[in-house]
Amino acid sequence: MDTNKSEKFRGIVIASKSDHKSGKILDIYTVELGRIKAYVRSAYDLRDNVSRSSFVFTESEFSLSQYKDIFMVNDSKVLYAPKLLDGDLKKIQDFAFLSELLMTLLNTQEGDDYIYTMIITMLNVMDIYPEKAKLIILAFILKLIYILGYFPRIQTKDEINTYSFNYEDGMIITRDKEYSNKSITIKEINFMNYLLNSKFKDLISIEYEENYILNLKRLFINYILYIFDKDEFKTLKVKY
């Protein structure tokens, strides 16, 4: 990128925080540049279009210029804005967790068009079916770690109903006492595979047991924490 001129990029804000000068530091995910940091100066942030572009999970066309290792937001045009600020506290909490998840999983080196489109699709479906947020978020976690190459290998055997999630080896194996606190059933494995291989919209009408989501979310969040050597996701109310 030519650092002397402003160029336009489509991007999704995955994190936003204010600095001590009343400006904002954004983490933006783009196909061309991957995850980048961009600074919105307070004078620009007063303009309505740039202000709205700084909200988390808003997709915009950004006019950016580069200064050393950070980009400057010179202008922007909102392309898509999820219904984040609609007073739904649960949805705001879900978005906060997704922001922290993406900041953990998406590196700064390269972007991916499939991941970019998947994020937008997930947000759209959550907007239309907010009551299915838990299901959609779990499906998104599974799909994302699969694309990034972290998905566990699965070894199943006939007539075995209970398995263990071995974080250390990245495998789901037949039940072992050593991993008894990471139990996963064959029904949950089948449910997991269905979420992984289905489109988000196709998940809306499926029937499932609530405990499937709770257990799989617990297992995979702890798996991600293990892989990335994190103690917790600060945006989650409870420890997994």
Describe the structure.
The protein is α+β, with helices and mostly antiparallel strands and 240 residues long. The protein has two domains: 7-80, OB fold (Dihydrolipoamide Acetyltransferase, E2P), CATH 2.40.50.140; 89-236, Recombination protein O, C-terminal domain (de novo design (two linked rop proteins)), CATH 1.20.1440.120. The chain has helices at 42-45, 48-53, 89-105, 113-128, 133-147, 186-197, 210-227, and strands spanning 7-18, 24-30, 34-40, 59-67, 70-80, 153-154, 162-166, 171-174, 183-185. The protein has a five-stranded mixed β-barrel with strand order 1-2-3-5-4. Strands 6-8-7-9 form a four-stranded mixed beta sheet. It is elongated and about 65 Å long.
Low-confidence stretches: none
Q: What is the beta-strand fraction?
A: 25-35%
Lateral strand order in the biggest sheet: 1-2-3-5-4
Gyration radius from CA atoms, angstroms: 20 Å
Which homologous superfamily in CATH is the superfamily of the largest domain? Recombination protein O, C-terminal domain
User: What do the pLDDT scores average to?
Assistant: 87
Shape: elongated
Distance between the termini: 42 Å
Helix content: 25-40%
- The number of distinct structural domains comes to 2
Q: Given this structure, which CATH class of the largest domain is correct?
A: Mainly Alpha
Strand tally is 9
Features:
7 helices, four-stranded mixed beta sheet, de novo design (two linked rop proteins), 2 domains, alpha+beta, 240 residues, single chain
